[in-house]
Amino acid sequence: LTIGALIAVAGSFAPAEAQVGHEPGASPYEDIDHAHSFTPVAGYFAGSGGKFGIGAHNGYTCGIRYDLRAGKTVQFGFSAARGALDRFIVDPFVALARRRSGPFDQTTTFLDATIQFNVTGAKTWHRLAPYTGVTLGVASGEDLAADTSGYDFGSKFYVGPQLGTRFFLTRNLHLRAEVRGVFWKVNYPTSFGIEPPEEPGTPEAPNAVIPDGKLDEWSINPWFQVGLGYMVRF
Questions:
Q1: Which of 60, 85, 170, 174 could covalently link to 166 via disulfide, CB atoms 3.0 to 4.6 Å apart?
Q2: Do the Cβ atoms of 36 and 68 come closer than 8 Å?
Q3: Mean pLDDT across the stretch 189-207?
Q4: 36 in helix, strand or coil?
């Protein structure tokens, strides 16, 4: 009788245990099959260009991105992009009324590397694969002949956090959407600390562009990107 009772009790637990988790066909999680992907991307690079607007900002970008998943959670990305951005010119040598002009085109090239942390590891959740990460890169701007102030955008190192997600249309094809916060330093020429010959100020009321001598500042630029990626196996 005792043995029969134990068998009956064990049998009553079996269905409950089988119901733990999800049926294979009903699980919200699916494996991400491959570790490599290529993604053409397009975006909009926003921001103010610093307090005078002479840094590159506000323009559309396009480029290509390659991603390599190093584990379930960690992924590395490498991208190159180019954009026709805006910038203003501040002439420190003329009267104040004619000091600022523009915007002008500032063609800018971006090269960067990203370490990405996949929130759902090597799986999707309802076809979504959210992530966060950090980007390190360098941006190079073409010379602008119209700017005679001595300011040169040149090449700038930048760093920025990112947040985004991928949405898998199929096992190999996915949409990517992300936003980055690009931090870089805007360095102003020494001419910004000099009184304009056409309209010099006084020690009490200076007319220099930057009368306090602080010739640099950090600028943050939101960068929105979308792309269509394809997973490949090597």
A1: 174
A2: yes
A3: 95
A4: strand
